[in-house]
Amino acid sequence: MKHPLMPTALVLALGLLHAWPVAAQSTDSTSSADSKAATELDRVTVNVGRGMLRSVQSLSQSEFENAPAGTSPLQTLSRLPGVNFQAADGLGNYEWSTRFTVRSFSQNQVGFTLDDVPLGDMSYGNFNGLHISRAISSENMGRASLSQGAGALEAASSSNLGGTLQFYSSDPLDQFGARVSQTVGSDSDRRTFLRLDSGNTAFGQAYISYTNQNTDKWKGHGEQRQEQWNLKWTRAIGDSRVSAFLNTSRRKEVDYQDMSLALIQSKGDTWDNFYPDFGAAVKAANTLCGANGSTYVAACDDAYYAGAGLRNDELGGVSLDLRLADHTTWKTTAYYHHNKGAGLWFTPYQASPDGTPISLRTTEYSIHRWGVVSNAEMELGDHLLKAGVWFEDNDFDQARHFYATSAASIPSVYEFPSNPFLTQWQYAFNTKTSQLSLSDTWTVAKDLTLGAGFKSLRVATDGVLEKGTGMPSGKITAKKGFLPQLGVNWRLSDTNELYATVARNMRAYQAAATGTSPYATTAAGFDAIKGSLKPETSDTYEAGWRTSGRGYEGSVSAYLVNFHDRLLSVQQGSGIQGNPVVLSNVGDVRATGIEGSLSFRLSSTVSWYNSVSLSKAEYRDNVVSNNVVVAIQGKRVVDAPDTMFKSQLGYDDGALFGTLGLDYLSKRYYTYTNDNSVPDRTLVNLTAGYRMKNVGMLREISLQGGVNNLLDKHYISTIGSNGFTNSDPSGTYATLLPGAPRQVFVTLTGKF
């Protein structure tokens, strides 16, 4: 279904693109115009990657600063072309619900890094990284760069089938100072941010920040809590630089209940779990679930007592960025990450030892990983040579435990439980990742640049089943010795250029007992597939045009992506039952699309950004599940909208500032057979603020307000929270999460 706003907005945007250069030339044709044009263009804060050989979109620090305090960086990036971001909370931080897809690639098929340190695939229950909202406070975000198709060869990722998202933290300030921000908002939201900068000292520059945020769920009961410390230090040594960072996070989130279309229709989108009414949960377990399933009825899964996610993280890194000669640089980053996590679910499918028909089921995690990322560059005449290596050693422990509950002793949803009465399974995984990349960028002529390179990737996992029966144990390796990438950039004029890229990428297997993993099936299933299972690969072809001028910047790109040996896991039963998934290679998937973006500096105070994405992603082979053919050939890929349109109008005169944003998303399928979907939706968001300089002891004071979902639309945000299913014609599969209603946030900030 086409949205009525789209044709008008696109026509207006394209008309402005052609009209703006003419207007600029008529007002200023002197030699100073070029300098002024460059200045105006720099103020367009969404950069389209001029001069690059592949599709790249970047956001500057101001984009993150102007978002409501505490907004996930992923949500800020969601207006870039090709990006679909969803979350059930207004700020995009509720991890069970967050989904970030690029050109129909799911979140765990995209690569993520922070200051060159790999963040893994950023999925829930991450086995090799952590979510960006835990890795760093959003206030300390410096910039971000998204490669929608062919990611940078040297990026440290073993999952980047569909591009790479690289985050960079802000540097310490040159002057001593402090920043204090306090946010209050809807659902008792309160966020405190404190940052102290050392300024230039004999020991370099540093900052330390502290963040504390609590907010109630927008429906039901429970809180989302997070506490973070960020420390960063840098020091220049001649033309070289050494830096280090240490970030900690303590996150506790109480879950929203996963819902189905039928449940939303019968109970409404404000339906939720029983928490904190344990008695109601026990009654439902006895009546609807028949004391652990003996007389089970479907309504058993309409609500549970509670669910929660607990995550403790420490992430640190040290970088040495050397200029060895005028045309040679070498940067090496060593890092370490520790995580302790648990996903809590109070289940009616396992009784406690005292006969209480509910127990606490957990999936518990522990990550100890370290690694080194090292990249060198050398200019030799018309050639820019790059070489990179990445090595990581990751110990990931995962277990499924059950803990006793009773009316007199209910485990807290905010604390890690202890003393399980039952362990269903317990794993120890060790994964060693090694990557080598080499590339040459050749400036053939002033207006023509060619690039060629490749990377070699090997990811070996040894999974040891320490407790449990019937589950797999053993080794599996994903490797490709030659993953090439070719690119060209042809500069047509000072304001226009063409580019094209061809790339092949591989995604390693997930080293976990849950998710789309070879270890998430049965022992017999693992033995049956481990010899024939192939890692997912993708071949990406993209070409585009970039244009820029006085106060505008735009790009259009077209792409074709062929997925090979795509892995799909089909959840058997409700998610809380924890049944082994059915995992298989489903052959090829093809995605084609065209996307574009336009940034305007309409005046010294007004900017306007637009992006549109049109895509078609289809499965090209049927699936055999339990010896039954599931006819998905020619069906659309789940959670891959055909049409997205985003527009944001901004104003900033140095004192008064604000943005008005529109976000349209077409319908999305959540079944592989496409027999059910969620409808399209349009959201409008608003921010506005006022800042003053040199007020008393303050260098700056500002008051900012934000309204998410301004028109208070009812819509379904996340799909696939419990995975996807083959077919759901009656709409009873619980894998949907409604989006948050209108929410208001106000932040007061003082800079000393």
Structure in words:
By secondary structure, the protein is mainly beta. Helix content is about 10%, strand content about 50%. The chain contains nine helices and 38 strands. The strands form seven sheets. The chain has a 22-stranded antiparallel beta barrel. A hairpin with a 6-residue loop joins strand 19 (about 450-465) and strand 20 (about 475-490). It is globular, with a radius of gyration of 26 Å. The two termini are about 50 Å apart. Mean pLDDT is about 90; it is low at about 1-45.
Quick gist of this model?
Helices cover 10% and strands 51% of the residues. It has 9 helices and 38 strands. The N terminus is likely disordered.
Give the helix level as a range of percent: under 10%
| Overall pLDDT score | 90
Query: What is the gyration radius calculated from CA atoms?
Result: 26 Å
Determine the structural class based on helices, strands and strand pairing: mainly beta
Strand content: over 45%
**Total count of helical runs of at least 4 residues:** 9
- List low-pLDDT spans: 1-44
Give the termini distance in whole angstroms: 51 Å
Shape: globular
Major beta-sheet overview: 22 strands, antiparallel, barrel
Counted beta strands: 38
